[in-house]
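User: For a reading group we're discussing how well predicted structures match intuition. Take TolC family protein. Before you show the prediction, I'll give you the sequence so everyone sees exactly what went in.
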Amino acid sequence: MGARGRLPKRSSPVPIRSATAALGLAAALLWPRPGGADPSHITLQDAFALARQHAPALVEARARVRAAQGPLASAAPLLRENPQLDFQVGSRRLANGDHGLDLAVGLAQPFELGGKQGLRREAARAGLSMEEARLRDAERLVLGDVAAAYLRLLQARERLKLVNAAADAAARTVQATERRYAAGDVPAVDLNVAKVARARALAEVRVSQGEVSALRAELEGRLGYRTEKARAFDDDLRSLALAPPRAAPDGGGTRADLVALEQEQAQAKAAATLGRRQVLPDVALGVRYQKEADETVFLGTLSVPLPLFARGQEARLVSEADASRAEGELRAASIVVPAQVQAASERYRASRDALGALEEVLPLLDDNEALAQRSYDAGEMDLAAFLLIRRDTLEARAAWLDGLTRAALARVQLEVETGVLP
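Assistant: Thanks. Here is the predicted 3D structure of TolC family protein, as structure tokens, for the group to look at:
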């Protein structure tokens, strides 16, 4: 491949490890990179680290995980209710006119029947596992979006280099055409055409500059982090496009969104069972000491509420509906996810094949451009043919750049669908 057909390569910094690496995707998301850390550049791996720390969706998902620990902590004790202590004291007038003291002290402990506390514990564990799986799934999707936005920004920056080079070439063409026009070799219309081509090239430069700024702002929005203007998002687009997709490790498990649905179904089933157990009355066992004047009594107590009206109807019906919904979503997802993986695989293979075809002819572009320039300078080619060749060369280079981006995006999407890497 000719030197002008390649994107500049640079040494990438050491990955920045995120505090949330233990969530499971970190080992796959952090690619090893040679070289020392360069604080002036933000590579794709650095962007991943920033997203895991600052992305709003991940901040919210982590908060939900912390909130889900509350029900589990509440269900952890052996008994749900605390012991109840009651104390009564009063004065009594005796038959002889004296005053006596009445005193009563009771201690009772409520007990739930039917394993209700265990069911609460089971539902709480499933709820926590569900939120943890949702956090992993949110990380998968957010980092996939970040990777796509980063790749489009790299594409825009490389396209800006292309149109800048085209604008410089158009300026040189105007100078060459002015010399030939002064010598009487070309008509005035050729000079006008050259100047129009230069103006179009400059307009494309302005558009590309605005696109780079806009895509940078969009990427920072996905990161949830505003970077300093001096720090550039920079990585090797071609290396990212040609990198093979990561395969799921042996025993890698189910994709996080499916795990979340499974845990949601388990939580709803436990809650529905708990609702059905509400028909079993809770009992309170206790002891009571009473002293009335000169008489002392020790009593054992038993309290049994009668479940005539509140029988867990709402909890049972809502939880059964939630379980049925989760089961339906899980059944549908088990069909949708393999189809998504297959579609992403087909798109990735097609993108890699198309990129290979473009890279085969990329060296010819250097030759065509150099030969056309020499021919035009020597007066062997008219301006229209020269501009046509140069425009075709620019479009071919832009197509190659689009092919790099398309292949890189297809690889990212394949890894997102397989749940390995965004």
